[in-house]
Write the structure tokens for this entry.
Amino acid sequence: MAKKSALIFLMMFVNLSMSYADNAEDWPCIQRYTPELSPTVVWGLEAGISPIELDQKTLKQVIRLSTNLRKDILLVESTIAEYLRSRQHIPEIHNHLFYEIFEKIQSKRKKVLGGIFRYSAKQQKLALRIDKQRKLIDQEQSKEDINTTELEDLENRQMWDSRAFRERKQQLSYLCEKPVNLEQRLYFVAKALKQHQE
């Protein structure tokens, strides 16, 4: 059973990487860009909201915990197992729960992608400003009568902007991992649900 589940999980992860589109022209991350995830690729069949009666308060608690990347995956797995234990008799419960969690992760991921694009755009503007400062410094240094005060001011601004650029670049690397982390959480949830289907 464990070997079968592990194989299914591996196959799903391979399918996701194959579904990626080419990088968007202005996508700043080394990870390949895809605007949306496919529930069919992740779940292995058509997923959707089934017309069933569920306790919405409890359901939302499970969804909130399952999509929170700060929560340990063992806690997520046990919470899903406990939720399903008393609801195995409900038709399509696994399909319903997966799609609810999928929609939440999809929404979070879209916000993260938008944030990355905005962050990158600001970084590009900062790079242009640093380049402009460098040209102004070169122009000032080429003058016969150098304005030392102006030159010092330009150099200080370039130094601080360059430092900010480097720090933001490191932060961007961290941000680029978040879509991947959300995808991994989704696949973990799918794996946990499939285990309880068997």
